[in-house]
Specification:
Blueprint: E1 2-5, E2 8-11, H1 24-40, H2 44-50, H3 52-55, H4 62-73, E3 75-76, E4 83-84, E5 100-106, E6 110-116, E7 129-136, E8 141-150, E9 155-159, E10 169-176, E11 187-191
Helix pairs in contact: 1-4
Length: 195
């Protein structure tokens, strides 16, 4: 069956069944793919925004580029004990000034996130917007916060609701230019559970 994708004619072949037993390398690859898909799939809206400009010149979808990069760099351990390497997880890729010195801590009213407003020598503007995603390890759930604050604010508080329990969390965020035509590489910070 044929179809068009990004202006290209593509023919899809019929799948062929293999009767060979799967090698450990293949099993490891399958586990890595399943693991990274479970993390990235809930973040599709972030990834479409965060990988769009990096993917376009490569004739790839934003999600496929994110999948390729993260499968290679954001998984650690040996099969069958693979796990996410959170410090290397990327949900955006670009040349805009990133979020420097990202930090987060639980307060009585929510999750306080802070960052350095200095852009250094990289392109960036005080009005650039920060988008943040918060992952609960205990709930296995992502909370999205698009355009949570401007770069020059230096901090924001993500208000909690009944589902927030001061859990162990991972915060991943990136900057989007105030004109909407550039993004930064994403940054990560681990947040311990509040006792």
């Amino acid at each position: 069956m044929g179809y068009k994708w990004k202006g290209l004619d593509v023919i899809r072949g019929l799948p062929r069944k293999s009767h060979k037993p799967r090698s450990e390398a293949r099993l490891a690859n399958e586990q890595a793919m399943k693991l990274i898909m479970s993390v990235l799939t809930p973040l599709k809206l972030f990834i479409r925004m965060g990988f769009r400009y990096a993917a376009e010149p490569l004739n790839m979808s934003a999600f496929n580029l994110a999948l390729s990069i993260n499968k290679k760099h954001a998984i650690k351990g040996q099969y069958p004990d693979l796990e996410i390497d959170w410090d290397n997880l990327q949900i955006s890729k670009g040349n805009l000034a990133g979020i420097k010195s990202l930090a987060a801590e639980w307060t009585d009213t929510g999750l306080r996130v802070s960052w350095d407003t200095d852009t250094g020598n990289a392109p960036g503007h005080a009005a650039d917007l920060l988008s943040l995603a918060v992952y609960s390890t205990s709930e296995d759930y992502w909370w999205p916060f698009f355009n949570a604050a401007t770069r020059d604010a230096g901090e924001c508080e993500l208000s909690h609701d009944k589902d927030w329990h001061s859990f162990e969390a991972h915060v991943v965020g990136f900057s989007v230019s105030y004109t909407g035509d550039a993004v930064s590489d994403s940054r990560h910070v681990h947040v311990p559970a509040r006792s």
